[in-house]
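Dear H.,

Thanks for agreeing to be a second pair of eyes. The structure we're designing against is below in token form, covering all 180 positions.
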């Protein structure tokens, strides 16, 4: 896939100019290179069954976002294995890892375990869900390291004109070691 992307705040810098830390008011100076950028995102997805019954499979997704200057270029990849138990075709266990690079340096890595479930389509309606437990590690900022829980439910449905719509609910929780 190919897409056009824009980021109005590539350094994720606060819009506030003053912050209070430990009772002291500090004045923030925004970085000179925090202007908006526009670039191109290239993406690829892969899926490969590992057995004839297609109960075990490997998956891979990756994207590379190329901005005019290398400073904000991002690479994100997610790979892992899925297994559908015998007799439960609507459920799959999942183990994998996600990671990202920013300008060629490791931004984070995120190993996880999870489960996915999906109902069979009924009159075009389909309910899907995913649950994921993981451990985020940010090498350059250990105070951001966290254990996380991600849960998502999605309902896909058609309308009378042939379009398809979806409602999605996502919940995320994380706990970090603030003393790091």
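And this is the sequence the design step returned. I haven't edited it by hand at all.
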């Amino acid at each position: 896939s190919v897409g056009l992307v824009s980021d109005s705040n590539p350094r994720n810098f606060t819009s506030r100019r003053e912050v209070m830390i430990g009772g002291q008011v500090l004045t923030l100076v925004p970085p000179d290179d925090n202007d908006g950028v526009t670039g191109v995102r290239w993406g690829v997805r892969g899926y490969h069954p590992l057995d004839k019954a297609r109960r075990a499979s490997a998956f891979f997704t990756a994207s590379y976002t190329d901005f005019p200057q290398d400073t904000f270029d991002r690479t994100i990849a997610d790979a892992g294995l899925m297994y559908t138990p015998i007799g439960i075709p609507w459920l799959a266990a999942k183990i994998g890892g996600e990671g990202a690079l920013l300008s060629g340096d490791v931004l984070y890595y995120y190993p996880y375990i999870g489960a996915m479930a999906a109902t069979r389509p009924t009159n075009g309606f389909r309910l899907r869900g995913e649950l994921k437990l993981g451990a985020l590690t940010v090498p350059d900022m250990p105070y951001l390291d966290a254990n996380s829980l991600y849960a998502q439910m999605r309902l896909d449905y058609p309308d009378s004109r042939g379009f398809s719509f979806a409602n999605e609910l996502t919940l995320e929780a994380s706990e970090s070691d603030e003393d790091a």
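Two observations from my side: The mean pLDDT is 89. The chain has no helices and eleven strands.

Warmly,
E.
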